[in-house]
Amino acid sequence: MKITGILHATFLTSDLGLSRAFYEGVLGLKADPRRPAMSYDGVWYDVADKQQIHLMLLPDPEAGLQRPAHGGRDRHVAMAVSDLAKLVERLDRAEVAYTLSSSGRRALFCRDPDGNALEFIGT
Fold this sequence. Notes:
3-stranded mixed beta sheet; 2 helices; 7 strands; alpha/beta
């Protein structure tokens, strides 16, 4: 047996509309209409072949937890992006704060509206 991939990353959200504005409006993702009805609201996004981001409108058991300023020092998911400069433009336009990777890689970290850390690596 071997692990052959990561199929999705899941994030909790307290305001699905605000999160959708970020993931769809800023990052340009499109909601997957195949998400089944569940006991809570949410949305799925396809990000690559057989890979997704899931948002769940559920209470955050860590609400109020102090997070590091730099997302690279927090648990996060790293995603490849084809045009890092275009992402920077979108983040700047939306006034989303971000930090550059301190490793010297072409990468940046930002947080979604609920404080979930995201890393984007230019490919």
